[in-house]
């Protein structure tokens, strides 16, 4: 399987990048060195950036059905000439960007290019972006920058104007379903349902297809919303959302720390039960310090709540679809709850349904801004009660 085969629903973009990678050998000077990959969450922009990096680095341009050593290293994040900047913080710091710039000035060690990928460049504050600006405008002759963001509008104009923008489409349900069947081996019905519920978000679709409990939690959330009658119901549902998010975030954060500890031991030649030498103990303990764990749990719980907010919004999206007679054209996300959603569509007018989607968006922005999760969710769900 070539490096491009994991990219879902972006056929025209993949063909464009394949052509660029192939032609840069004969005309290296024409190669664009600053890129901005834009696509909504779950569209696969980070995967596309990784595939593009692998294609630039690998002698076979990532096309071989048997991936080269260079391709495997890029995909594993271990290639010395490919650097990734990702963060689970609210913003990307100046110090991290300055370190990247220093790296970008170094000659590649074994590959034709040094490739630097920055995920979520929209999390940079303006002063941080200004530090990066000169390097994006005039990259070192051997460096390719790949920036990723939800949309070009989420990035400062000074960066937009100095990059070549690649806009990704939202993958179709059919494309996501096919991908799930091929990559996870799930049956057609399970893959189709996961793709429908994920609404084009590849990562969430994989989650739904591989973890039945997450789908059950989603089903319970939709039923809880549709059955809300009074403020006490809304308060209880908000508490359930926060508790479930913290529980899942804790499990995920501890698992991630466990993987980092295992990698630390592997890199330093230590067995799973072997005592960590004194000179390495400080670095080892830093992996799982309380502040780091707390930060990871907070960030991960926000991700889980954001997914729940998308689920809530999908109910009112379905209401709007039914009210406008567009079910045949665009389909219903929550097919299992169609009867209750149809009933809700008769209780709300079109303006009220749209207003509820806007309320969910407002709650998302408040929570992303480190607002009080429980209070914000309580206020939101109370506002969604039908008079």
TrEMBL record:
Pfam families to which the protein is assigned, alphabetical: DNA_pol3_delta2
SMART domains: AAA
Domain AAA+ ATPase: from-to ranges: 31-171
Gene Ontology biological process terms, A to Z: DNA-templated DNA replication
Protein origin, superkingdom: Bacteria
InterPro entries named in the record: AAA+_ATPase, DNA_Rep/Repair_Clamp_Loader, P-loop_NTPase
Record-linked NCBIfam families: PRK07940.1 (NF005926)
PANTHER family attached to this UniProt entry: DNA POLYMERASE III SUBUNIT DELTA, REPLICATION FACTOR C / DNA POLYMERASE III GAMMA-TAU SUBUNIT
Protein name, entry field: DNA polymerase III subunit delta
Source organism of the structure: Bombiscardovia coagulans
Lineage: Bacteria, Bacillati, Actinomycetota, Actinomycetes, Bifidobacteriales
């Amino acid at each position: 399987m070539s490096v491009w085969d994991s990219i879902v629903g972006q056929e025209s973009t993949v063909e464009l990048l394949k052509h660029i990678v192939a032609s840069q050998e004969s005309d290296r000077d024409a190669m664009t060195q600053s890129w901005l990959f834009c696509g909504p969450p779950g569209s696969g922009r980070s995967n596309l950036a990784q595939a593009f990096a692998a294609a630039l680095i690998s002698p076979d341009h990532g096309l071989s059905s048997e991936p080269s050593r260079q391709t495997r290293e890029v995909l594993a994040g271990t290639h010395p000439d490919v650097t990734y900047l990702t963060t689970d913080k609210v913003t990307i710091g100046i110090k991290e960007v300055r370190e990247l710039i220093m790296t970008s000035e170094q000659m590649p060690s074994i590959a034709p290019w040094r490739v630097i990928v920055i995920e979520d460049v929209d999390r940079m504050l303006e002063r941080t972006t200004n530090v990066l600006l000169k390097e994006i405008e005039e990259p070192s002759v051997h460096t390719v920058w790949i920036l990723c963001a939800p949309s070009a509008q989420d990035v400062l104009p000074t960066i937009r104007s100095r990059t070549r923008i690649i806009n990704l489409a939202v993958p179709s349900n059919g494309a996501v379903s096919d991908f799930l069947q091929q990559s996870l081996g799930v049956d057609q019905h399970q893959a189709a349902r996961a793709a429908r519920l994920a609404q084009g978000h590849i990562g969430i679709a994989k989650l739904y297809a591989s973890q039945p409990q997450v789908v059950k939690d989603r089903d319970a959330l939709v039923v809880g919303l549709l059955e809300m009658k009074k403020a006490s119901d809304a308060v209880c549902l908000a508490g359930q959302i926060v508790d479930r998010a913290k529980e899942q975030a804790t499990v995920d954060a501890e698992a991630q720390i466990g993987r980092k500890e295992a990698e630390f031991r592997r890199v330093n030649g230590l067995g799973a039960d072997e005592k960590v030498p004194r000179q390495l103990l400080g670095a080892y303990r830093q992996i799982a310090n309380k502040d780091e764990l707390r930060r990871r749990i907070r960030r991960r719980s926000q991700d889980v709540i954001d997914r729940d907010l998308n689920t809530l919004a999908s109910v009112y999206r379905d209401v709007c679809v039914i009210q406008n007679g567009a079910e045949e054209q665009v389909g219903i996300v929550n097919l299992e709850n169609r009867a209750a959603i149809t009933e809700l569509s008769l209780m709300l007018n079109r303006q009220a349904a749209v207003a509820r989607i806007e309320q969910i968006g407002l709650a998302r922005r408040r929570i992303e801004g480190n607002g009080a999760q429980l209070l914000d969710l309580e206020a939101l769900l109370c506002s969604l009660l039908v008079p």
